[in-house]
Amino acid sequence: MNETRTTQEIEEIKERILTALETVIDPELGIDIVNLGLVYDIEFEGETGETVIKMTLTTMGCPLADILTDQIHQALAEVPEVTKTEVKLVWYPAWTTDKMSRYARIALGIR
Questions:
Q1: CA 42 to CA 76: how far, in whole Å?
Q2: Is 69 exposed, middle or buried (0-12, 13-18, 19+ CB in 10 A)?
Q3: What's 22's DSSP letter?
Q4: pLDDT of 3 strictly over 90
Q5: What domains are there in the chain, each with its CATH number?
Q6: Is 72 exposed, middle or buried (0-12, 13-18, 19+ CB in 10 A)?
Q7: Using CA atoms, how far apart are residues 12 and 62, in angstroms rounded to an integer?
Q8: Residue 18: Cβ within 10 Å count
Q9: Contacts of residue 95, Cβ cutoff 8 Å, sequence gap at least 6
Q10: 26-62 tens-digit pLDDT
């Protein structure tokens, strides 16, 4: 590819990646992983299109890791600039309900 993208173009692509990730719904909670606060970082390599999603899960033994990872790969396949997706699970900082958006809190009845 060897496209050189501006910082602004990369930020716009990251926004589209974030929007795509909002289509990935946690099957247990029925809310997307972005509003749940599970996505910690998006790394997008402007020249190659390689993308790394750093995220956590609500619990360490969460049985949904593979399902969510598959859904992330499907969602990012819709973003044309993304050529390769890697999902890295991180456990620090630990997820808490404080990381949830206002929307997620209201939907789940958490104050």
A1: 12
A2: middle
A3: T
A4: no
A5: 7-108 (3.30.300.130)
A6: buried
A7: 32
A8: 14
A9: 37, 38, 56, 57, 58
A10: 998 999 999 999 999 999 998 899 999 999 998 888 7
